[in-house]
Design brief:
By secondary structure, the protein is an all-beta fold. Helices cover 0% and strands 57% of the residues.
Length: 463
């Protein structure tokens, strides 16, 4: 699979622009302070031929940049701003706006300064935004921490610098659908879908959240990072938000990060399939279950990412789960019991879908067949909340730092939970080892079988 780094090289760079300090004078605001049968919506890979290529380094995604014409307008700190101090934490939300129709701002670096009533600087915090697209407004959510527990913030200033240049046909491909605010018994959450209008799949996407009251005044914010968004499709998200007032509407601002890279096309989705899965709600409203992933090509895959979206009947996202598959050998399978976020109170989760983004090719990996044999699995612990796995190293070398995954099945053959851990100590060739793994499963259901996978990863040592 050809993995490309997201990179723009502006041919004509205008002088570095320094933003005027913007003083935020908003006053400190008042602080307010048994399993179900699920519908499977499988968006797993289709069976197609795959051409294996080496991952490549940084590559440009757009080279149609043009010299700037006309007068460039400066970056604007737009609209309402917000900050509030809660003990040693200062919560902020604000907007940047690019008023130009053909000029891209990039490498926007901003510094937040906190001052006391005497004008003395208490602390500062610096962060950045990779791109601010032409005529784009982008919302920011930040928390700045104070070292002095007695410090009282009286005012806030924000300064910024950025680069700029003309650009064609490079826009933010991400939009938002089905945004939902959940009050969640004073632990508010926001969920939604990030939609990708591009045919390319992008990774490491940031989504900032701004919460507004009935007068469109900012009353809170939050953020989340999404590991990937498939091309011409969407990915769900959930995040907790810090809120200090009644929320009437929510805005979400997705964008690239400096870690974003992309995959062209869609042929690679068939490299990993999902032959088995089952997720459900337990009696307490938590999501349990798991899945099996299978490598369908003849090359080991490292750092693949499995993602599960959960929905209610109105297609609102109620929870998400993700898991990094550190290594999957050719033709091999692995059982996964990912931790799922807790659905908000009042949500009714009724369906889910699964997508796995295949990772990097490891053509020079030490082994292509799994050398480990599982000898036995059994429940252990005072509350039957552990599984003891005994296994043997069948390789000709000593092996250390390996993964151990477990799935638990009921008497009808459905996955009802599992767990995972790592075994770090060296295991000599032909020797056996034992590990106890904490597991999360429906203990009100009779267990039919326990299956374990012991497998190497990208940092396993063979000596």
């Amino acid at each position: 699979m050809k993995k490309k780094w997201l990179k723009i090289t502006i041919l004509v760079i205008l002088p570095l622009v320094v933003g005027m300090a913007c003083q935020l004078t908003a006053p400190i605001s008042r602080i307010f302070n048994k399993a179900t049968e699920e519908e499977l919506v499988d968006i797993g890979p289709a069976e197609t031929d795959v051409i294996v290529t080496e991952p490549v380094g940084a590559e440009e995604i757009n080279d149609t940049l043009e010299p700037v014409t006309g007068e460039e307008q400066d970056l604007v700190m737009q609209g309402e701003d917000f900050w509030i101090q809660q003990e040693t934490s200062v919560y902020l939300a604000f907007y940047f706006y690019n008023p130009n129709s053909e000029i891209l701002f990039e490498d926007i670096e901003y510094t937040i300064y906190l001052y006391d009533a005497a004008g003395a600087e208490l602390t500062n915090y610096t962060s950045d935004l990779r791109y601010l697209f032409p005529q784009e407004t982008f919302g920011f959510s930040e928390i700045v921490y104070l070292d002095d527990e007695t410090a009282v913030v009286d005012s806030v200033e924000i300064e910024w610098t950025y680069l700029s240049g003309a650009v064609e046909d490079f826009t933010n491909p991400f939009t938002i659908e089905n945004v939902t605010y959940w009050e969640n018994d004073d632990f508010p959450m926001v969920s939604g879908m990030i939609v990708n209008a591009s045919s390319d799949t992008y990774t490491y996407i940031l989504a900032n959240v701004i919460c507004l009251d009935s007068n469109d005044q900012i009353v809170g914010s939050g953020y989340t990072n999404i590991q990937f968004v498939p091309g011409n499709d969407f990915m769900g998200f959930t995040t907790y938000v810090d809120v200090f007032g009644e929320v009437s509407s929510v805005e979400v601002y997705p964008t690239y990060t400096y870690s974003s890279y992309y995959y062209e096309g869609d042929e690679f989705w068939s490299e990993i399939s999902i032959p088995e899965d089952n997720f459900f709600l337990d009696d307490y409203g938590y999501i349990l279950g798991g899945m099996i992933a299978q490598n369908n090509i003849d090359v080991p895959l490292s750092n693949s990412v499995a993602y599960v979206n959960f929905y209610d009947d109105n297609d609102a996202v109620t929870a998400v789960a993700s898991y990094s598959i550190e290594l999957l050998l050719p033709g091999e399978t692995v059982g996964i019991a990912p931790w799922a976020s807790t659905p908000p109170i009042g949500a009714e989760t009724t369906s889910y879908d699964i997508l796995i983004l295949p990772g990097d090719y490891e053509e020079a990996y030490e082994v292509t067949d799994n050398p480990f044999v599982v000898n036995s699995t059994e429940l252990s612990g005072d509350y039957d909340d552990y599984v003891t796995v005994n296994f043997t190293n069948g390789y000709s070398k000593s092996v250390s730092e390996v993964n151990v995954n477990v799935l638990i099945y009921d008497t009808e053959g459905f996955i009802i939970g599992g767990g995972y851990s790592w075994y770090y100590d060296p295991i000599p060739a032909g020797s056996s080892a034992e590990i106890e793994i904490w597991v999360d499963y429906d203990q009100n259901t009779s267990i039919g079988s326990i299956v374990a996978w012991v497998y190497p990863n990208s940092w396993t040592e063979f000596e």
